[in-house]
Amino acid sequence: MSQLRTLPKDRRARIAVLDDYMGVKDSLADWTILSDRADVTFLHEPFGSEDEAVRILADFDAICLLRERTAMPATLLHRLPNLKAIAATGKRNRTLDDAAARQLGIAVMTTSGSGNGIYATVELAWGMIISLMRFIPEESAAMRAGAWQTRLGSALYGRTLGVVGLGKLGARMASIASAFGMKVIAWSPNLTPARAAEGGAEYADRATLFETADIISLHLVLGEKTRGIVTRGDLRSMKPDAILINTARGPLVEDGALLEALESNWIRGAGIDVYDREPLPADDPIRQQTKALLTPHLGYSVRETFESFHRETVENLDGWLNGNPKRLMNSEGN
Q1: In this model, does residue 334 exceed pLDDT 60?
Q2: What is the pLDDT of residues 111-161, one digit of tens each?
Q3: Under 8 Å CB-to-CB from 50, ≥6 apart: which residues?
Q4: How confident is the model at residue 88 (pLDDT cuts 50, 70, 90)?
Q5: 278 an active-site residue?
Q6: Which one is catalytic: 139, 278, 304, 307?
Q7: Reported confidence tier of residue 93, pLDDT bands at 50, 70, 90
Q8: Which of 102, 249, 268, 310 is catalytic?
Q9: What pLDDT was estimated at residue 80?
Q10: CB of 61 within 8 A of CB of 14?
Q11: If we measure between CA atoms, which residue out of 3, 25, 38 comes closest to residue 308?
Q12: Segment holding 133, helix H or strand E
């Protein structure tokens, strides 16, 4: 790692807190800890381009990133010569080129985890499942319009949940499904029958999972090998009354395949919390798809997670301002 860029000596440090869409970050931690040495600015709107990001961030010494919201590729980092520190939430951030940052002498600090909100994404996934199976959004809208019981939903008991990716969150999905009286099957590229049993599921091969599950929920980490791992063929093979839930990462599904599946009635519906591009453009066609239940990447976005993230972010920045940055990402990216 290159020698870290030094703090300004002739003025107070300038810190930008990015992606404060809801305008709540100033209330999630005690930012006044930094007020004797730094000016903190909360930015509420996403950048429209790299040029816009450079223009707005040019004078800041440190930036705070909300995990995987604003991308920080090497091209952008090289255009920010005044940037001295990045305080990123979470342990991993696939949209931050941390190696380039460290090579440039930028201190990259992370946080330890999600606090009590660790399973918030699973809770959202189940909220989507129940909403889709019982047509809750449609029935609520119908009630406001003066109607009464317009659709007949389906129970979860006796249905089959297919979990794609049986890690910590996938196993949590399995345990909740069992409580509902559901059968749970699971598949991922490296899953074995023994590991599936440990996670509370029965191992199924890829074809069997997509062809037989009533509900399929994705819980894979996005990487080179998993990008587009759910193909048009997979969606085409699903039951026509099945639903797909994606609270993991948008690019896990082949580009354009889910919209085609909904438009062509291959599946009954989908719950989508994550997208190829975020924030999702206002004119994206998926917004008009009536069979899609859409949320704006709410998965881990709960108060418990955000308070944990931002409390540690302030601690990291406090240490950095004192010449002792905390939770520095090492050369292996941990």
Answers
A1: no
A2: 987 767 789 999 999 999 999 999 999 999 999 999 999 999 999 999 999
A3: 75, 76, 79
A4: very high
A5: yes
A6: 278
A7: confident
A8: 249
A9: 98
A10: yes
A11: 25
A12: helix 120-133
Among the listed residues 14, 102, 297, 310, the single catalytic one is: 297
3-class secondary structure per residue, 127-158: HHHHHHHCCHHHHHHHHHCCCCCCCCCCCCCC
Report the distance separating Cα 327 and Cα 51, nearest Å: 30
Contact status, residue 248 vs residue 219, Cβ threshold 8 Å? yes
Write down the pTM of the prediction: 0.91
Return the amino acid letter for 192: T
Active site residue 224: no
Q: Sign of the C-alpha dihedral, residues 308, 89, 18, 8? A: positive
Domain 13-114+305-321, what architecture? 3-Layer(aba) Sandwich (3.40)
Please check whether the two domains, 13-114+305-321 and 117-294, share a CATH topology: yes
Helix (H, G, I), strand (E, B), or coil: what is residue 47? coil
Q: What is the dihedral of CA 118, 23, 20, 130, to 10 degrees?
A: 40
pLDDT higher than 60, residue 10: yes
The values of phi and psi at residue 305, to 5°, are -65, -45
Residue 202 bridge partners (DSSP): 185
Domain boundaries, the chain: 13-114+305-321, 117-294
Give the class (CATH, top level) of 117-294: alpha beta
Active site residue 297: yes
Q: Residues 220, 194: contact at Cβ < 8 Å? A: no
* Average pLDDT value for the chain: 94
pLDDT tens per residue, range 281-324: 999 999 999 999 999 999 999 999 999 999 999 999 999 999 99
Q: Please, what is the angle between helix 136-144 and helix 120-133, to 10°?
A: 60
